[in-house]
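Field reference: sequence -> structure
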Amino acid sequence: MMSLKGFARAMRRRLRDEPPLRLAAARADAFLVSYPKSGRTWLRYLLSCYFAESAKLGFEPDLTSTFRILPNFDRDPVRGIDAFIGRAGEAELPLILVSHLPYRERLFLDRPVLFLVRDPRDVIVSAYFHATRHKHSFSGDMTAFLDEPKYGMAALTGYLNGWAAGLAGRPHHLISYEHMLAEPMPTAAAILAFLGVEPQPAMLARAVAAAQFDRMRDKERESGIPGHDYDRKDDQSLRMRSGKAGAFGEWLRPDQADLVLERCRADLSPRALALLAATGVDLAR
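Structure field:
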């Protein structure tokens, strides 16, 4: 539970950061939103490769410069809104702000949203390794992780419920990690069309090729992710950890995998269940 001092610090940060974030939101063409560990690093990189070529930026993004094209919705100078190179008219780029934040109407305003979902069992496994091997913020086993309020099932279902309600009545485009993995070209083309961008097939094919998993993993091993200090020799600590759909069975016991789905069925709203249906997971009650 957050201490009184911790709560006061959080409120001060919110009062300091919210006005510039709201200004950025008002200028945004769209948001790219997902629960952590749903595949947004890959999608951000693919889109940044496309826009780098279409805007003739003169460089192929790496895992640092990708933030200059699709910045985080925060005030980090390297990864956030101030890093965006289209701000001063230097490049004709749409402003797509990337966020894991829970839904708040006053922060996201009425802007269109690209919403990325992934099989919750794969999300939980990836989140577990992120917490235990990347951030070293959790030391328990998988059973304990599922019940951990900050990272486990309650955090996942609460996030999805909030955004499912927030997406109702606003322009949005739903993307599943599984469909993106199986059909990256049509998935990316549909995203561009939603953004009002005419997809250029040859350019899109080059962006998809540049964002292949093994290529991105090599880039991460070489230079890491800005703002993160971790052992890049440990495969399980990498952002590019697996690049597969349905690999949860390697790490979750059958009863644990079933529990993830049971919690989703019990705790998710009908709208949130409909979002996850795009992943192909059977969540019918």
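Note: Residues 234-238 have pLDDT under 50 and may be disordered.
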